[in-house]
């Protein structure tokens, strides 16, 4: 489902890089209010929104937008958005402990969680509709 009231500029200079991350998160009904309420400090030193990452995870030659937010309760929220036509659609919604890091391996998004005496790795791969978890190995 497209994020309401967010459009993606077209042309060679358009794409998700032209969509302000804070505006996208505020418009997305799937983003928790605790995150939306903290975006008033962004950009700035008190902003808990990590720098946006643009990487092609779907294989269509256009970068997706990866956003992560560290809240006050020790959680990290992460979303991945893709552009299709003039609209934006969320293809991954993730919440985990604050010690989350993510990296790309090929077109896969690999999320590492650590904290509370445990470590877990989840690998996400495009299935034609969303980024879905796949076995790590």
UniProtKB/TrEMBL annotation:
Protein name: VCBS repeat-containing protein
Source organism: Streptomyces yunnanensis
Lineage: Bacteria, Bacillati, Actinomycetota, Actinomycetes, Kitasatosporales
């Amino acid at each position: 489902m497209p994020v309401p009231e967010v459009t993606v500029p077209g042309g060679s200079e358009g794409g998700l890089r032209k969509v302000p991350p804070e505006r996208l998160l505020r418009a997305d009904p799937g983003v928790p209010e605790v995150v939306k309420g903290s975006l008033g400090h962004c950009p700035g030193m008190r902003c808990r929104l990590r720098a946006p990452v643009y990487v092609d995870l779907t294989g269509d030659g256009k970068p997706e937008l990866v956003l992560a937010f560290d809240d006050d309760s020790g959680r990290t929220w992460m979303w991945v958005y893709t552009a299709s036509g003039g609209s934006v659609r969320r293809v991954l919604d993730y919440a985990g402990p604050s010690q989350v890091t993510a990296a790309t391996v090929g077109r896969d998004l690999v999320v590492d969680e650590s904290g509370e005496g445990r470590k877990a790795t989840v690998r996400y791969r495009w299935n034609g509709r969303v980024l879905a978890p796949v076995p790590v190995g």
